[in-house]
C-alpha cells in the first residue's frame, strides 16, 4: 500500500512539473518527502488507534453478545450481558444488550412456567390414576361385600371422570391460549342461558340445603359465543357451590348498564385471602387446598381466557369467612 501511494505521489509531482513548468529543487523534494512521511506516520497511528478502539469497543462487545446468544441457544436462559457504558448514556450496542436481556428474561419466565406446568400436570394426573389403581386392586378381592364393591367402583368412576375432565380442560385451555378456538358469535338471551346453567346444579344445592337468590333482568340479548360462555357460568357456579357450606347462600344477578352486561356470582363460602386473589386465575393454582380433590386448578384459568377472547373483564372481591363475588362484564354487541 505504501509503495502504491509513493508511486502515485511521484506520478502526480512529475505530471504537475510538466504541466506548470515549475521545476522542483532538491529542497522542495526533501520538504515534500518529510511532509509525506509525516502524513504516513499519522495515518499509521490513526489506523492503530482505530484498530484498538474497534477491538475493545466493537469486537469484544459483539463477541460477548454472540457468546450469550449461544448460551441461550443451548438452553441456558440465565445468560445476561452487563451494560457497556457506566455513564448515564446509551449507545447502539447498549440498546441491543438491553433488548437481549429483556428477551432472555422473558424466555427464562416461559421456561419456568413450562416446568411448573409439566410438574402440575404430572401431579394432577398421578392423583386420580393412583385412586383408580388402588381401588382397582381392592375390587379384585374375592370375598368383597356388595356394599364395598359398589363403594370402590364409585371411587374408580369418580377418579376416571376427574381424569377425563382434567384432560379435557387442558386441551381446551391449550386451544384457547394458542387461539385455535374462534368465537362463534350469535345473538341469544343471556338470562335464559344463566338459568339453564344454574339448574344443572339443582341436585347439589338441594343436597347441601343452599339458598338460591337470583336477580335477573329479562330480555337481555347478547352477541357472543354461547358455548364458550356456558363454560364460564358452569365454572363459576361449580366453585360457588363447592366452597359454600351447608345452609349457605349462592346469589346470581344480571344487570344491564348502558351497553355493558354485568353478571355477578356470589357465595357465602370460606372467602379468598388477598394474596390468593392475585393468583386465582393462574393455571393449576388452588388457594384452598382442602378442596383440591374436587378440582384441578384449571377452571378459573379457562374462565379468564374465555372472557379475554370475548373482550370482557372479570374481577373478584372477597373477604375471608364471608364469601366471594365474581363479576363478569361483557359488551352486548361485538364491536370488533
UniProtKB/TrEMBL annotation:
**Which PROSITE patterns does the record associate with it?**
HAMP, HIS_KIN
What coarse category fits the chief subcellular location reported for this protein?
A: membrane
Q: Specify whether Nucleotide-binding is a keyword of the entry.
A: yes
- Which UniProt keywords are listed? ATP-binding, Kinase, Nucleotide-binding, Phosphoprotein, Transferase, Two-component regulatory system
According to its UniProt record, where is this protein located? Membrane
* The UniProt record lists the keyword Lipid biosynthesis: no
Molecular function terms, GO-annotated: ATP binding; phosphorelay sensor kinase activity
Q: Which SMART domains match?
A: HAMP (SM00304), HATPase_c (SM00387), HisKA (SM00388)
* EC nos: 2.7.13.3
GO annotations of cellular component type: membrane
> Which SUPFAM superfamilies does the UniProt record give?
ATPase domain of HSP90 chaperone/DNA topoisomerase II/histidine kinase, HAMP domain-like, Homodimeric domain of signal transducing histidine kinase
Ranges for domain Histidine kinase: 120-334
Q: Which catalysed reactions does the entry list for this protein?
A: ATP + protein L-histidine = ADP + protein N-phospho-L-histidine
Q: Where is the HAMP domain?
A: 56-112
Record-given protein name:
histidine kinase
